[in-house]
């Protein structure tokens, strides 16, 4: 989920289960698959799925994640949607699915600047602080190599005016991603760390940062509809996260490997149980740095956005003990009512709703008139945009019910 407006804080392995549904055998959700995907994508080789590489890695985290997702799509039987659209000439002729090469050879599609903070060192009163645990720089901080003093100006700020440095005492350390550099350094220090300090502190602060140009890609795949392949239900999830600063990784297990894993699991299901409409799966890049992948898509859609019957964006899917939140539930009331009715009848989850929010990739679609929900889970997980958002914390509570609710509800859309 996008950390919007920097200063606003925010609030089993299971075996494959076969169930009989409408007299056919379907493959149900698979939590062990989710956990496998989460473990891989959160490992250090994937460098927090950012635009830099972990010191021992040659390729960036986001590129490596892209390769992994495409490999899983191919295993799960998804097709390259762009190739299909090209070959059918925007659905004006039919092609056999077998004729698709399924190459996903997307190159340098989405371009943007990125403030690459690749090294940070902070020492206060001769005590070296631990990155991620004791402090985090603001993502827009510039280069600095400073030795000197900072002065306390109020209960939460220490500053050095001349060198434009601010240390801010924060309840929670939250990192983000930035396209630009500010002309001042802002460092968030964990509450309690500077409690006993005097009004003047001795500091060493070193940051190496530079603006770099990033080239990255969305991934589009689909399971063709049996009757109306040119009409789409779209599931989306962003696969980027905040990357790494040197050897400190932001794993982003809940945000948003959880959503990526659920999309891949849904793909496995729909491969075995196709609908009359096509089911597309969009894996967006650049979400954390400003919803850039989804913005790119609505500005450069593969096909007329009107062909999307509904878009369901999944982000922060790793909790669930307190139910789910449906962003836009108060906007698309009829569809939300259907969801609630199915839930009341069969699943009895807590299903909450909100209005519009510019906090994940559904946003640009809603703005363009595409009906969409952004669904996230509630409960269990406290980590957010920090080093503690790890697979071990994911519960996927009530995942079976959430999965089935989504599938039933999609079936109810005409
Ligand atoms: Zn996020």
Overview of this protein structure:
It is a single chain. This protein is of the alpha+beta class. The protein has two domains: 18-109 and 217-412, 3-Layer(aba) Sandwich (Aminopeptidase); 113-213, 3-Layer(bba) Sandwich (Glucose Oxidase, domain 1), CATH 3.50.30. The chain has eight helices and 20 strands. The strands form four sheets. An eight-stranded mixed beta sheet has the order 3-12-16-13-17-20-18-19. A hairpin with a 4-residue loop joins strand 7 and strand 8. Residues 5-26 have low confidence and may be disordered. Zinc ion binds next to loops. Zinc ion is lined by residues 1-3, 255, 288, 385.
- The CATH topology name of the largest domain reads Aminopeptidase
Q: Which percent range fits the helix content?
A: 10-25%
What is the typical, i.e. mean, pLDDT?
92
Distance between the termini: 29 Å
Number of strands: 20
Specify the CATH homologous superfamily of the largest domain: Zn peptidases
The largest sheet, given as strand count, sense and whether it forms a barrel, is: 8 strands, mixed
- Number of DSSP helices? 8
Helix and strand content put the structural class at alpha+beta
What is the CATH architecture assignment of the largest domain? 3-Layer(aba) Sandwich
Radius of gyration: 23 Å
Number of domains: 2
Q: Give the uncertain stretches in residue-range form.
A: 5-26
Specify the overall morphology: globular
Output the helix-strand order: EEHHEHEEEEEEEEEEEEHEHEEHEHEH
Query: In CATH's first tier, which class of the largest domain applies?
Result: Alpha Beta
């Amino acid at each position: 989920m996008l950390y919007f407006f920097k200063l606003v804080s925010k609030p089993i392995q299971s075996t494959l289960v076969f169930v009989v549904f409408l007299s056919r055998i379907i493959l149900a959700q698979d939590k062990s698959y989710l956990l496998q995907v989460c473990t891989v994508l959160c490992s250090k080789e994937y460098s927090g799925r950012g635009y830099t590489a972990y010191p021992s890695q040659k390729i960036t985290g986001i590129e490596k994640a892209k390769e992994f997702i495409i490999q899983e799509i191919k295993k799960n039987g998804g097709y390259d949607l762009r190739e299909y659209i090209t070959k059918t000439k925007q659905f004006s002729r039919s092609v056999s699915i077998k004729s698709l090469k399924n190459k996903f050879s997307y190159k340098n599609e989405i371009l943007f600047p990125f403030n690459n903070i690749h090294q940070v060192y902070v020492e206060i009163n001769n005590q070296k602080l631990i990155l991620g645990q004791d402090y985090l720089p603001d993502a827009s901080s510039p280069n600095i190599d400073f030795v000197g003093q900072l002065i306390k100006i109020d209960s939460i700020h220490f500053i050095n005016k001349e060198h434009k440095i601010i240390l801010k005492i924060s309840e929670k350390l939250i990192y983000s991603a930035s396209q630009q550099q500010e002309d001042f350094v802002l460092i968030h220090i964990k509450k309690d760390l500077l409690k006993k300090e005097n009004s003047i502190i001795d500091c060493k602060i070193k940051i190496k940062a530079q603006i770099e140009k990033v080239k990255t890609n969305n991934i589009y795949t689909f399971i063709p509809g049996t009757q109306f392949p040119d009409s789409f239900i779209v599931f989306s999830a962003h696969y980027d996260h905040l990357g790494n600063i040197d050897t400190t990784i932001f794993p982003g297990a809940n945000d948003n490997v959880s959503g990526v894993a659920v999309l891949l699991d849904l793909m496995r299901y729909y491969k075995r149980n196709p609908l009359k409409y096509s089911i597309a799966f969009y894996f967006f890049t650049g979400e954390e740095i400003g919803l850039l992948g989804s913005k790119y898509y609505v500005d450069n859609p593969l096909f007329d956005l009107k062909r999307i019957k509904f878009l369901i964006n999944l982000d922060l899917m790793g909790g669930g003990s307190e139910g789910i939140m449906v962003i836009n539930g108060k906007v698309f009331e009829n569809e939300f009512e259907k969801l609630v009715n199915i839930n009341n009848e069969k699943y009895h989850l807590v299903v909450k709703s909100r209005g519009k929010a510019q906090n994940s990739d559904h946003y640009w679609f809603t703005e363009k008139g595409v009906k969409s929900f952004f669904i996230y889970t509630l409960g269990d997980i406290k980590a957010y945009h920090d080093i503690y958002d790890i697979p071990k914390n994911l519960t996927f509570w009530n995942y079976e019910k959430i999965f089935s609710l989504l599938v039933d509800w999609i079936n109810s859309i005409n």
